[in-house]
Amino acid sequence: MIWTLLDTQIVIIGALCAMSAALLGNFLVLRRMSMMGDAISHAVLPGLALAFLLTGSRASSVMLIGAGVVGVLTAALTQAVHRSGGVDQGASMGVVFTTLFAIGLVILERAARNVDLDPGCVLYGALEPSPLNTVTLLGWDVPRAMLTNGIVLLLNVGFVTLFYKELKISTFDPQLATTLGFDATWLHYLLMTMVAITTVVAFESVGSVLVIAMLIVPAATAVLLTDRLLGMLLISVAVAALSALLGHLGALHVPGWFGYPGVDTSTAGMMTVVAGGLLAVAVVAGPRHGLIRRALRQLDLTLRIAEEDLLGLLYRFEEAGRTATRPQMVAVLQQAGGLRPWIAHLALRRLARAALVDDASLTPAGRRRARDLVGAHRLWETYLDQHLELPSDHLHAPAERLEHITTPGMRRQLEDEVQQPTHDPHGRPIPRDETSE
Q1: Cβ(337)–Cβ(402) below 8 Å
Q2: 31-41, pLDDT tens digit by residue?
Q3: Theoretical Cys-Cys bridge with 218: which of 124, 131, 203, 240, CB 3.0 to 4.6 Å?
Q4: What beta strand segments (E) does 172-214 contain?
């Protein structure tokens, strides 16, 4: 397909809408209020209906005022039900927004039957034809949706910039905000007002249902990629803009992949699909919290424990005047720790690279490290025997876990607690820590 000016305008409108929603969505996610966007997007219906009935106008400014009032009312009623009734926050949202949504439907049904409302537009948006509805600005024909969404984005950027410090403190520690001299409650309601305005403006572009995804998914993606608020804001906005571009490209080309050449689909819907895909990528490949990173950290921990177990095993073999072969070490480690053979072989290779093991024997550096581990193990057995009075055959397993987390400082405290013993409860000598000699 040939890319036209209309396609560019569709992407820009979608990006402006998605970025304005994502910017505020960060604070909803961090405040554990992700469904507040859903609640407000449904609850503003009576505000829209009453604004039309009182003014007889469907102008954007009138609709925004009605939505803003009901958005704040939704937040206030949710907090009131949550606090006064002791109802869960999520249940409070459900009670309030379903009630207000039902009231809005009744008002529309009884008093505004002749109002031209397209349910499909409200639910799924009308992003593709939005560039055709233009207004003249400085002699240029500008799509109305581009102008309104651009203004809302600027308002949201101004709001976050102006109240960045207050939003940061009240989001992570509302009590500290009060201590510093400003009430977090009014900022909460101001945030809800901005969410309501953003949601209503997004009706025309991505619909009341899909705007919820734009509020939450880019922010949730950013949470997986960074732990800093500023970085989270920037990443979420970038994800939102990328979702708009890739979403429109997907709407144009994806149907053809499934045997429907020349057919396109909803850009707004595909934007949400792309945002969900980016979230899935962050879940799997995130640099800190991704599944791959977590699996690698778990593998590294498993290998470290296996290496220390191997060092301890070799030390005990030397202590008994025995020698060990690689197959013996692998078999013993597999039986004792339930590890797979490849883990033991990989641990041996890492020990060899670190010059702690030479073939199946300890090097001087490996012997010092092994002596520290075995010494910590036997100190823990002594401690557990003296303080918990465990049976002698129950001392090894907990001591084997604790030896891997014992620092030099902890070892010195252990020695003081058990009064500097020379032998463990089984009569085996406790090697001294060379750093304390």
Answers
A1: no
A2: 888 777 777 77
A3: 240
A4: none
What's the CATH number for 294-436? 1.10.10.10
CA distance 370 to 256: 63
By C-alpha distance, which of 279, 194, 290 is closest to 239? 279
- Using a 10 angstrom Cβ sphere, with 0-12 exposed, 13-18 middle and 19 or more buried, the burial of residue 271 is buried
3-state class (DSSP) for residue 423: strand
Residues with Cβ within 8 Å of residue 68, at least 6 apart in sequence = 47, 193, 196, 197
**Coil vs helix vs strand at 36:** helix
What lies within 8 Å, CB to CB, of 208 at 6+ separation is 41, 42, 122, 123, 199, 202
Q: What residues does each domain of the chain span?
A: 5-286, 294-436
Which uninterrupted H or E stretch holds 359? none
C-beta neighbour count of 84 within 10 angstroms: 9
In this structure, the number of other CB atoms found within 10 A of the CB of residue 250 comes to 21
Q: Answer whether 39's CB lies under 8 Å from 101's CB.
A: no
242 C-beta neighbours (distance < 10 Å), count: 17
Distance of CA 93 to the CA centre of its chain: 22
* pLDDT value of residue 122: 52
pTM score, whole prediction: 0.78
Contact call for residues 380 and 403 (beta carbons, < 8 A): yes
CATH topology of domain 5-286: ABC transporter involved in vitamin B12 uptake, BtuC (1.10.3470)
Structure-block tokens of residue 264: 């396109």
pLDDT digits 0-9 by tens, 144-173: 888 888 999 999 999 999 999 989 998 888
Place of tokens 């954007």: 60
Distance CA 96, CA 85 (A): 13
Q: What is the pLDDT of residue 23?
A: 94
Residue 361's H or E segment, with its range, is strand 361-362
